[in-house]
Records
---
Amino acid sequence: MRVEYINPFVESTFNVLKEVLNIDIKRGDLKLKNTSMQIQGVAAMVGLAGDVQGRVLFDMNKETALFVAGVMNGGAAFTVFDEMAKDTIQELANMITARAVTKLGGLGFRFDLTPPTLFTGEHMEVSTNINVEALVVPMELGGNGRLEVNVAIRERT
């Protein structure tokens, strides 16, 4: 996996979170995971096709998702992960992915995106068959939980 594909997703995640949440975001250390992995409770996944194939997963626990949804909806207190909260997390995934793909497009890479798919629940595992390890970067949300950007991409052969 080429770092040129990864950095725009990590940078876009950091910048979008900082803009929409208006809090201090701290980027954690990069780690590798299998593409088959258990989610924390709420994950939005965007598929990528074109010059590459793969997916980007935005993974967080339910409490973090409720915090993010609340801030993105004007500070409303979300206590239930309802349709509005789900739509908000999917919109966050759209915002981050669109910004990253725009950066990559400027470098000459071409991508098609799937709309975000949302996974919720305990003890759920997401698995893809692209046979590449996922690079994961945690983003600490100023004491309000952690969102992990999880990128598994390979060049189309």
---
Amino acid sequence: MSMFEDFKTLLVIKKYSKNTIGTYMGLLQSFQSYLGDALPICKLDNKHLLQKIREFIIDKSYAYTSQKQFLSALVLYMKEIHRVSLDLSSLQPRKPQRVLPEILSKKEVATIIKSTTNKKHKAMLATLYSLGLRSGEVINLKISDIDKNRNTIYIKKAKGNKDRILPYPEALKKILRNYYVEYKPRLYVFEGQKGEQYTTTSLRAVFNKGCERARINKRVTCHSLRHSFATHLLESGTNLKVIQELLGHNSIKTTMLYTQVSNRSIRNIQSPLEFLDID
């Protein structure tokens, strides 16, 4: 049994979302692997533990969010399971400058999906983009969440423990149908080779391979398909409030980010240079 099994059970009892539980467990297991099985986290004194945490963060080069999640998981684990209070405030990362996301064009998205010949991989990428899902939402999607009669897809316990219902696009139905015939998944829409739940690591690898084949040079991730979904909807005239509901954002302010990357309001603007007689 994993040394973090009691912690996982506690998170379930406390009603943490499945995504958060998976993230916390993964980060703690990664840190324990870094320390080695012979040196359990709980056996380190505070000074030694802080030193190892610093070394681990530097070694992993975690982004802002991952570093915050790791520290939160560690503090909660030590407090709830070992009754030890950790003060890791000195290791909390500085909030990064907000950078606008890279957006893939419709043509680039189409090339990524078309160049992916494996039917399962193609279906995963198409599902990510056509529904604007987070990676974890695709991984957790079950066959029973798809209602063919109502043409809807039920996203359960997503970020913030929220549910939402999305329309089931006709174009996606065809892709999923071709995938189902060959792979015959049983519980989850996308499963591993032995029927287990697919992993976000494998999904990232599928996306990265697709970008390689499509010769995409932008700095993009799986989440860029979600960003592109929202931006393309906005550029096609979809109301911002509707996009907020489709994405599952709590605040319209979060969704308004896409007004900054959309070219809808600027594509018809003429440069002042157009009005100069410089021939």
